[in-house]
Amino acid sequence: MSYIGAIDQGTTSTRFMIFDETGAVVSTAQMEHTQFLPQAGWVEHDPLEILRATHAVIKEALSAAGLIGADLSAIGITNQRETTVAWNANTGVPLNKAIVWQDTRSQPILDAIDPELAERITFRTGLPLAPYFSASKMSWMLQNSPTVQSAFDQQELKFGTVDSWLVWNLSEGNIHVTDVSNASRTLLMNLETLEWDAQLLSVFGIPRESLAVIKSSSEIYGYTSSEGVFGARIPIAGIVGDQHAALLGQLCFEKGESKTTYGTGNFALINTGDEIVRSKKGLLTTLAFKLGDEPAKYALEGSVAVTGSAVQWLRDQLGIIEKSSDIEPLAASVPDTAGVYFVPAFSGLFAPYWRGDARGVIVGLTRAATKAHIARATLEAVCYQTHDVIRAMEEETGVRIKVLRVDGGITQNQLCMQLQADILQTEVSRPVVAETTALGAAYAAGLAVGVWKSKNELLTQWQESHHWYPSISPDAAAAGLLNWEKAIERTLNWV
């Protein structure tokens, strides 16, 4: 039996999963890390804490499986994408905390860019000018962090998304690489050439020598150090941004196939094949993945900033629930929201609106409203935001999604998925392995080292765990959407 390890470094936690050659989960370990919120709009992570968590979950998962590092045929890495780390090339020490994808502090840098130039940037990258992406985060560090400025002056500065940070620390010789899916989320990669774009580097003031080498999503980049956490030289053979990895894990290899992942945020992708589809509906044009020497596949993506993290907000900031799983019985204790709507636009609204001036609102409150109604409105907010993205995607591509393939932690919430089917008026399907992000990274690594010989071999492995059908009428769904649109209007022009 062959085994593949997958590091899944997400926004709120780090997971290590071991899969066998049938795609079955052998073991898993997970650890949360600290969310630093030093001021409004700022979200940070400690890169060293993430690295320590990565080491811890690798050891735990190997121990639980009764394996050692040498038993793994390869490892793949998947990661929160736009989150940006700066470190010293000589010492490997982070120069400040990582700036997370949800962070909005770099908005003024983008506001200063000429609108005509902004259009050219969007054409080249497929992305709107938003602080969500990495380039303005790097610019902010160069302009505001003395340690980053000093490293730049000494020619010791390295920038990277979290995949690059992990590969640097796990690999022999400190390899500095990224893959096309992560690079496509920086506002610095040209979608057509799959290389760093000289004009874009100039616009944002980013030195090319500080950036990683762009590779495919599935190849042997290097090997782990035998002195490191694995205790063996193992091929590092897959790097895929988290949402692209989920597309792989759901085996959406062909044009028109799509998936929706529910995590800290919510991300729907549809494979557009070899074609770069430039969105007119507020979606992102992005790289899907590139498997070795095969041509790159592109995708349209709808990104929602706050879904699972809205549940965490109920837990951590409001204290409505003690643990995230408590939301389902609490929300199920009432038949509806009693007219309460919650739009968790904590960092503005992402697709299809792209309104950085939006902020979160809870509307429709009466004296009769309880924490149960707010909990149910939170689950509905997850589903309404997904609805907005899926409908934009269908309009953009002309493809009606008949069954929504879903994955991620919140898909274990039966009520939430039933609400999703009701609000979308579309069937919803969850696979046996719901953590398809890690599975996609394992597939990328396994294909690179020959554990799986072809994509066709993988297609035989997908199995359905649960299927939901709409349980309310189209008229009832439409009435709810009308109020949701009113709630969206209330979020705008706050900043």
Helix content: 25-40%
CATH A-level architecture of the domain at 3-251: 2-Layer Sandwich
**How many beta-strand segments?**
23
Question: Which spans have pLDDT < 50 for at least 5 consecutive residues?
Answer: none
Beta-strand content bin: 15-25%
CATH topology annotation of the domain at 3-251: Nucleotidyltransferase, domain 5
Considering the protein shown, what is the CATH homologous superfamily of the domain at 3-251? ATPase, nucleotide binding domain
- How far is it from the N-terminal to the C-terminal residue, by CA? 56 Å
What descriptive keywords fit this protein?
7-stranded mixed sheet, globular, 495 residues, single chain, 23 strands, alpha+beta, Nucleotidyltransferase, domain 5, 6-stranded mixed sheet
Short description:
This protein is an alpha+beta fold. It has helices at residues 47-65, 107-111, 115-125, 134-144, 146-153, 162-170, 180-183, 198-204, 242-249, 308-318, 327-332, 371-397, 414-424, 436-449, 455-459, 474-491, and strands at 3-9, 13-20, 25-32, 44-45, 72-79, 84-88, 98-99, 157-161, 177-179, 189-190, 195-196, 213-215, 218-223, 235-241, 258-262, 266-273, 284-289, 297-304, 341-343, 361-363, 403-407, 427-431, 464-468.
